Amino acid sequence: MANGKNRKSPSKKAFRGLRDLAVYALIGLAALIFFVNLSGGSKKGTEVPISQVVTDVKDKKVDTITVEGDQVTVKYKNSDQTATSRKESGESIYQILKDGNADPSSVNIQVADTSFSQTWLSLLGTVLPIALMVGFFFLIFRQAKDAGQSIFAFGQSRARVFSKDAPQVKFADVAGVDEAKKELEEVVDFLKSPQKYKDIGARTPKGVLLVGPPGTGKTLLSRAVAGEANVPFFSIAGSEFMEMLVGVGAARVRDMFAQAKKNSPSIIFIDEIESIGRMRGFGISGGHDEREQTLNQILVEMDGFTPNDHVILIGATNRPDLLDPALVRPGRFDRRVVLNLPDLEERRAIIQLHMKGKPFTKDVDVERLARRTVGFSGADLANMLNEAAILAARESKKAIDNADLEEAATKVKLGPQRKRMQTEDDRKLSAYHEAGHAVVGHFLPQVDPVHRISIVARGMTGGHTMFPPTEDRSNERKSRLLEQISTALGGRAAEELIFRDVSTGASNDLEVATAIAREMVTQYGMSDLGPINIKSKGMIGAFGNDPDEPNTISESMQTKIDAEIRKIIDNAHIQAQKILKENKIKMDKVAKALLEKETLDTDEFEKIVGKKKKSA
Ligand code: ADP
Ligand code: MG
Ligand code: ZN
Questions:
Q1: How far apart are CA 8 and CA 143, in angstroms?
Q2: How far is the CA of 276 from the centre of ligand 1 (A)?
Q3: What pLDDT is stored for residue 284 in this prediction?
Q4: Domain presence at residue 252
Q5: Which one of 94, 428, 556, 558 is least enclosed by Cβ atoms within 10 Å?
């Protein structure tokens, strides 16, 4: 996460600089136009060719010639008459007169220093572009310097070294993930005493792949390995290889391996490795040459390790399915350590770890927190506790209380509260929409109890109804999935029932419902198409279409799939409407309570609709 930020800020700065520069350039341009108008407008008299001036001088008609830059003003003898002319820039009026066989000494020639506008004009014309260019290069240099490299050091790796004496992360700073730690202990031991392994002729590990969803501690854990073994840690994100020109990535890889070998034993950490190690030979998206060259270079370097190099690669990814098979062959990233979202016990451990050093009120219960945060990653939990502390501090509390934690947990998952202007109609619509979700969910036995309903806007949503899982389920049943679809459609169903009209507010609900239905049909064999898996890589799934992968499903099959999805959604919709019709009075009461209080918790909700009947 921090990597991304570091890379972004200099370019932002450069952008600001460029913007300033553009402002100055505009001011300069305006001044330029002003001066041109000024010098043009101040001249009177008829415009004559320069040859006419020469003739007039020869005829002794001229009294004075005033030269301002290229402007020539002629004052005639015995009259107030003047004329203007232009001379070739760079040529002197003396020369022009002489060339025309006129006698310069017969007239008064004044080369005006007052021709301030002309001088400025030409000066500006010369200086401005140079200034712009210098400024531009200055900015580029500064940006390059901020990014920790010279502009000419394209090929050098940007890997950052966390030296031995930097503040060290240890395994104790990573909670839960005991299995992963155990597997990595071997790596630590090898880095600590490589000789032991060499003596006995053991094939030493080369590459370890950490696989897991975002925020599960992959980066943290690999830093902890370096910390435990007390070795230098070279870290780079896969996307950083892909930034500039073709061939740069490969050069960076070479340089990074050279540095790591020089400092061995050491660790090279490549984050987001799927962005380089993506399968070759597919697709239409650009940057493939660069990616391939970089990947090849990594493979070459890994194969070139000698047993004495003592460099271990750790790669992190949340999309192992995208990795090139060459990367995970024996002798390369052949060890895989999987990190999952933390279960109840692990969440408790992570929460406890991050609670350290923060004051809490007595009624804050770790166990309850851990139960309430099913589906949270380690990073979510760390965030939640930090947000809670910020909330408490903002209100100058002495300790963090349950309300802070509840608000923080909601904020982490749904974004901050958004105060916005709502018409009374909007609020009423939101209230019925959320009441619809809540009531439908409440009367379906397998849906988790309502935890909180709110019509306070947050992030992208106008309101929310939360049914956080009360237990860690490893399997979903068809009947429960159907109930979830009905619940998701409850908001829309309530709008139809009360307003005889529908709003755009349900679009996310429809997306969720459709995604579940699609997975039921295509992945879990839970439809009338039977127990087959027809998931194709090219299909539009919950995560959208991947243009890099071909579609392998026939059109007739696609039609059948669509029909099955339609059937599931329609039935769920009918079920939701039925529940709401039967419980309309309760729904009205919930909506009214929401309009009054904006947010209801489990107790307040169940006071209106009764206790939830759990399924057996
Ligand atoms: P990933 O690299 O898997 O996306 P990170 O290692 O960057 O996740 O985790 C982000 C933050 O979340 C860590 O800095 C840490 O504060 C917290 N965190 C994640 N997992 C754990 C864990 N198992 N124990 C303690 N803290 C964790
Ligand atoms: Mg990470
Ligand atoms: Zn909704």
A1: 10
A2: 23
A3: 45
A4: yes
A5: 556
